[in-house]
Specification:
Elements lengths: L9 H8 L21 H6 L18 H14 L4 E5 L5 E3 L2 E2 L6 H7 L7 E7 L2 E8 L9 H4 L4 H4 L5 H8 L3 E3 L3 H7 L4 E3 L5 H6 L6 H14 L5 H23 L1 H6 L2 H15 L2 E2 L4 E4 L20 E6 L1 E2 L8 E6 L6 H19 L9 H16 L7 H7 L3 H4 L32 E4 L2 E4 L13 E4 L2 E6 L2 E4 L8 H13 L1
Parallel strand pairs: 1-7, 5-6
Antiparallel strand pairs: 1-4, 2-3, 4-5, 8-11, 9-10, 10-12, 13-16, 14-15, 16-17
Length: 495
């Protein structure tokens, strides 16, 4: 990795690269190999570059949908200035940053994924005027494009403001001017907090936590019902995820020779080739690790005869993620007890999926799946019935542990800030997408179950779209029934 001439520290880099009127001294890395920049080199770097402005660009695919979303937000908060930041780069270590992921609220309303971007809706007439504030292309005159750690020659070309306007369908302005404009703003203002400290500081005397939370909650609830574009993206994510699961099955022998990390890396390759990233840390849990709900260390052994619980999802280039789980026999065949437990989870998932339909209570699919699992636990003698008593006291939760699903979209746990009455106490509507993911987990140190159960964990998870007349399983291309899983694995290994 090459070293730039000035530190990547954001404050120093901004001071060196963001000069507009007065000349800024060149900031050198403490141990940089060049002592400075000669006047001749600085002059040379300002000229001899071709015009690379992109013209006649087509709007991004979701531009019409993001316009509708902004209109709905405008109607919800008439007469108020609304500020939605994208977020800033975060330091990973020293002078390297984490890969940037735009805030969900910003990307949902603009389709843009630029760091430091801010969408501002300013009251105008009976509605709002939308402006997206962005960093323009790095400056060729002051040397920013080759001296700054975030300059064009270091991290790649940004869109010009004119290009951004064509792509997003929103007027674009220089974000470096925004803090001062916000400090001078009058009238009620709301901001989505937690993404841009400088923007929040500019508004510190104009906003309240309660009013800002109302904005965040509204944007969370707005994402509950997906439009046609979003449904298409979720289907793409599920299709890519299915191919990622196939990739894993084909290399299980290599995972046995190494560790769970081979599985993680294999799935990640598919996510990066066909999408933006994984939508969350992949859970590649073999053997007793499958009983840890969010096992993301992925550093354990992969052994024949054990189960592999793979919970992973591809995130599309537009930031919509799948969330799918399959529990696979590493050697291709379930043992008798593994299959008994697997079949119980499968039956619970079938009951849960059947309960997903418009007009149903959100909780219905969870209750349906929990009832099936509880019936099996009582039948196996692991908990004393009757079933109603167990459910009332929640005793099954020792082995079922978690809720049976959640909303899905741009966040793997989408709509998380929504009001309880609009989410878990709400009613399903066409266009909602949720996971149905029951599981049974028998911890390796659980002395209340027979020894042969200990260390077995099973979860089956699919992404279910509520339709006008029921539901559609977006991840149905991956088999779920035990015999179908075995046949699918055998066919992939032969191929």
């Amino acid at each position: 990795m090459a070293e730039e001439l000035i530190p990547a520290d954001s404050d120093e880099a901004a001071a060196a690269a963001g000069a507009e009127e007065e000349e800024q001294p060149i900031k050198q890395r403490k141990n940089g190999l060049y002592p400075g920049v000669s006047d001749e080199l600085a002059e040379n770097m300002t000229s001899g570059w071709a015009d690379t402005e992109l013209r006649d660009l087509e709007p991004i695919a979701q531009a019409a949908h993001t316009a509708d979303r902004r209109a709905a937000l405008s109607a919800r908060f008439p007469g108020e200035r609304l500020v939605i930041p994208s977020g800033n780069l975060k330091t990973r270590s020293n002078d390297t940053e984490y890969a940037f992921r735009a805030s969900t609220e910003y990307a949902y309303l603009t389709g843009d994924q630029s760091e430091d971007g801010v969408l501002v809706l300013e009251p105008q007439g009976g509605g709002h005027r939308a402006t997206v504030y962005l960093l323009p292309r790095s400056d060729r005159e002051n040397g920013e494009f080759w001296l700054s750690g975030q300059g064009e020659l270091w991290v790649g070309r940004r869109h010009s403001l004119a290009e951004a306007e064509q792509l997003l369908g929103i007027p674009a302005k220089d974000v470096r001017e925004l803090p001062e404009k916000l400090r001078e703003a009058t009238g009620p203002v709301r901001v989505v907090r937690g993404h841009d400290a400088a923007i929040e500081a500019a508004l510190t005397d104009k906003v309240t936590a309660e009013r800002d939370e109302e904005l965040r909650v509204n944007l969370s609830e707005a994402r509950a019902v997906k439009d046609a574009f979003e449904i298409g993206e979720l289907q793409k994510a599920c299709d890519s995820t299915a191919r990622g699961f196939e990739d894993v099955v084909k290399v299980l022998d290599k995972a046995e020779a190494t560790s769970e990390r081979y599985i993680e890396g294999t799935f990640f390759l598919r996510a990066r080739v066909e999408g933006n990233d994984v939508g969350y840390g992949s859970i590649c849990a073999a053997g007793p690790h499958a009983t840890t709900l969010h096992w993301v260390r992925n550093d354990g052994p992969v052994r024949s005869g054990d189960l592999l619980l793979l919970d992973a999802g591809v995130e599309t280039h537009t930031l919509y993620t799948a969330d799918v789980t399959r529990t696979l026999p590493i050697n291709g065949r379930y043992s008798a007890l593994q299959r008994t437990i697997y079949d119980a989870v499968y039956d619970a998932q079938e009951a849960g999926i059947a309960a997903v339909r418009p007009g149903a209570k959100y909780r219905d699919f969870h209750d349906a799946a929990q009832r099936v699992l509880t019936e099996r636990l009582v039948e196996w003698g692991l908990v004393e019935g009757p079933v109603e008593r167990v459910l009332e006291l929640g005793l099954q939760r020792r082995w079922t542990l978690h809720g049976t699903g959640h909303m899905l979209g741009m966040d793997v746990h989408d709509c998380a800030a929504a009001r309880t009455e609009a989410y878990v106490d709400g009613t399903l509507e066409p266009g909602m997408c949720l996971t149905v993911e029951p599981g049974l987990y028998f911890q390796a140190d659980d002395l209340t179950v027979p020894e042969e159960y200990r260390g077995i964990g099973v979860r089956i998870e699919d992404d279910i779209l509520v339709t006008e007349d029921g539901n559609r399983n977006l991840s149905a291309s991956l088999p779920r029934r035990a015999d179908e899983v075995e046949a699918w694995m055998a066919a992939l290994k032969k191929g």
